[in-house]
C-alpha cells in the first residue's frame, strides 16, 4: 500500500486516500485525521481565493468604447490615487505649520482638502469613455454635453490659474539640472524615484523651504494632478519648479487639464492603453456639480473638492450605478464659478458678454478662397501667433501640439459662454420661436 507521505496534492486524491486509510486497520487514526484536515484547509484557501477574485472582478468596470477598431468592450483604470495622498501605508502624514504655510504660498493648499478616498466604482470609466478630449466636452448619453475648462480645475482644486503662463516642455539642459537637484537630495538613480521616496523627504524639512516646495509639487503630480504608472516623476515640469518663488505664477490649472485630455485621447483611441495618467478628479466633480444628486446642489464654496466626502460619494454612486449614470437634470447655470480663464481676468461674466461680444464677432471671418472654405480667427495680443509658438517649440511635434492647444483655447474663449447661453434660451423658448441667427457666416458665391 502507498505510504501517506506520497499522497497527491489534489483535493479528490486526498479524500480518496483518507477513505482507504480509514479501511486499513494497521494505519494510525492520526494519519487519517491529518489528511482530512489538509483537505479542509485547502478547501478553505480555495474558497477565500475565489471570494477575493470575485471582489476584484466586482471593482472592474467594462465600458463600451468606440475606437479605430470599432466599438469594443474595454476596462479602464486610473493612476490618480487621492486616497494615498499624504499617507504612508495606513498612517496619515501631518504637515508642520511651516510646511502648511509653504504649501499655501505656492497655491497647492486645495489638495489638502480632499475628503474622500478611493473612487466610486464604475463612474470614472463611464466618464472617460464619453469624454471628447479634443473639444474638452463631457458627453452624457441623451443629454447635452458640457465643456470643461481650466476654470473648472481652479474651482475644484484651487490651483494657480494664470492664463498665458504655460508650463513648457523639458529640454536636455533642464533635464540635467533636474537630475543634479535630485542627486543633491540623495537620489543616485533618478529614474527609480517615486512618490513614496518624495514623501519620505518631508520629515527632512520641518521648517519648509524651497526644496520642500519643489518636492511637494512633484509629489502632488505623482499621486493626483498628473500621475504616471508606478507613481514616477514627471521630469518635464522642472522648468516650472526650478525657482520655488515663481511656482505659483504658472498656469497649473491648464497644465493639469491638458495632461488629462491627452491621456484620455490615448485611452480612447488605442484599445491597448487602459490607464488614464491624469487627474480624473476633474471629470468626477464636474459631473457631480452639473448633475446634482436627487436635485440637491452641493455647496459651491471653493475649492469644491472639500464639499463632497467619501461617504456622500459612496452613497450616491451605489444608487446611480444600479439605475444608470446621468439620469438627473443637467445644471449649467453659474458653472464654472470662476471666469478667470474664459474671461481673461474679467470679474463679471455679464460684463464680458456686453463689452466683448462685438469684438469676438469681428475676430471671426469666414472665406471661400479657391483652395477651399476657411474660418479665420483674427488673433489679438492675448494669443500667440504661429511664429511666436515656433520660437518656443523645440521641434515640429511640439509646435503642432502648441498650435492645437492655442486653437482650442481660441475657440473655447469665443464660443463657450455663447453656446451655453443659446442652449439655455432654447430650453426656454416656445417651439414656434426662431433661434437667434448665428454670428458665424460662411459666404457663398
Key features of this structure:
11 strands; three-stranded antiparallel β-sheet; 15 helices; 445 residues; mainly alpha; single chain; 8% strand
Secondary structure: helix percent: 40-55%
Measured between the Cα atoms of the first and last residue, the distance is 101 Å
**Beta strand count:** 11
Q: What integer is the average pLDDT?
A: 76
How many H/I helical runs?
15
Main sheet summary: 3 strands, antiparallel
* Element-level helix/strand string: HHEEEEEHHEEEHHHHHHEHHHEEHH
Global shape: globular
Describe the structure.
The protein has 15 helices and eleven strands. The chain is globular and about 60 Å long. It has 445 residues and is mainly alpha-helical. The chain folds into three domains: 4-59, no CATH class; 62-323, no CATH class; 349-428, no CATH class. A three-stranded antiparallel sheet has the order 6-7-8. Strands 1-2 form a two-stranded antiparallel sheet. It has a two-stranded parallel sheet with strand order 3-9.
Amino acid at each position: 500500500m502507498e505510504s501517506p507521505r506520497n499522497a497527491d496534492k489534489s483535493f479528490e486524491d486526498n479524500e480518496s486516500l483518507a477513505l482507504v486509510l480509514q479501511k486499513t486497520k494497521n494505519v494510525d487514526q492520526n494519519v487519517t485525521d491529518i489528511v482530512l484536515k489538509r483537505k479542509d484547509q485547502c478547501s478553505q484557501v480555495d474558497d477565500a481565493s475565489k471570494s477575493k477574485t470575485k471582489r476584484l472582478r466586482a471593482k472592474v468596470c467594462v465600458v463600451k468604447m468606440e475606437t479605430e477598431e470599432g466599438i469594443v468592450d474595454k476596462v479602464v483604470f486610473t493612476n490618480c490615487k487621492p486616497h494615498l495622498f499624504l499617507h504612508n501605508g495606513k498612517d496619515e502624514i501631518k504637515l508642520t505649520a511651516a510646511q502648511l504655510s509653504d504649501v499655501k504660498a505656492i497655491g497647492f493648499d486645495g489638495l489638502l482638502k480632499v475628503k474622500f478616498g478611493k473612487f466610486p466604482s464604475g463612474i470614472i470609466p463611464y466618464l472617460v469613455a464619453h469624454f471628447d478630449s479634443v473639444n474638452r466636452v463631457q458627453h452624457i448619453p441623451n443629454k447635452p454635453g458640457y465643456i470643461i475648462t481650466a476654470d473648472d480645475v481652479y474651482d475644484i482644486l484651487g490651483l494657480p490659474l494664470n492664463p498665458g503662463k504655460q508650463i513648457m516642455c523639458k529640454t536636455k539642459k533642464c533635464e540635467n539640472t533636474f537630475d543634479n537637484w535630485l542627486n543633491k537630495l540623495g537620489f543616485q538613480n533618478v529614474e527609480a524615484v517615486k512618490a513614496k521616496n518624495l514623501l519620505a523627504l518631508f520629515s527632512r524639512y520641518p521648517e519648509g523651504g524651497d526644496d520642500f516646495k519643489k518636492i511637494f509639487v512633484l509629489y502632488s503630480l505623482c499621486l493626483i494632478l498628473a500621475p504616471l504608472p508606478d507613481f514616477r516623476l514627471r521630469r518635464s515640469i522642472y522648468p516650472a519648479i526650478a525657482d520655488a518663488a515663481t511656482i505659483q505664477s504658472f498656469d497649473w490649472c491648464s497644465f493639469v487639464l491638458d495632461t488629462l485630455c491627452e491621456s484620455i485621447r490615448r485611452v480612447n483611441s488605442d484599445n491597448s492603453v487602459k490607464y488614464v495618467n491624469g487627474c480624473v478628479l476633474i471629470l468626477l466633480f464636474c459631473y457631480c456639480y452639473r448633475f446634482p444628486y436627487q436635485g440637491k446642489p452641493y455647496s459651491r464654496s471653493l475649492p469644491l473638492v472639500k464639499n463632497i466626502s467619501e461617504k456622500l460619494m459612496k452613497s450616491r454612486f451605489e444608487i446611480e450605478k444600479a439605475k444608470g449614470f446621468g439620469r438627473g437634470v443637467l445644471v449649467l447655470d453659474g458653472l464654472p464659478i470662476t471666469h478667470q480663464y474664459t474671461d481673461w481676468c474679467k470679474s463679471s461674466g455679464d460684463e464680458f458678454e456686453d463689452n466683448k461680444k462685438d469684438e469676438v464677432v469681428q475676430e471671426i471671418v469666414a472665406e471661400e478662397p479657391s483652395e477651399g472654405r476657411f474660418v479665420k480667427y483674427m488673433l489679438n495680443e492675448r494669443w500667440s501667433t504661429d511664429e511666436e509658438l515656433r520660437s518656443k517649440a523645440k521641434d515640429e511635434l511640439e509646435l503642432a501640439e502648441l498650435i492645437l492647444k492655442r486653437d482650442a483655447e481660441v475657440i473655447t474663449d469665443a464660443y463657450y459662454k455663447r453656446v451655453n447661453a443659446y442652449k439655455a434660451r432654447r430650453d426656454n423658448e416656445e417651439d414656434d420661436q426662431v433661434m437667434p441667427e448665428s454670428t458665424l457666416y460662411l459666404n457663398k458665391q
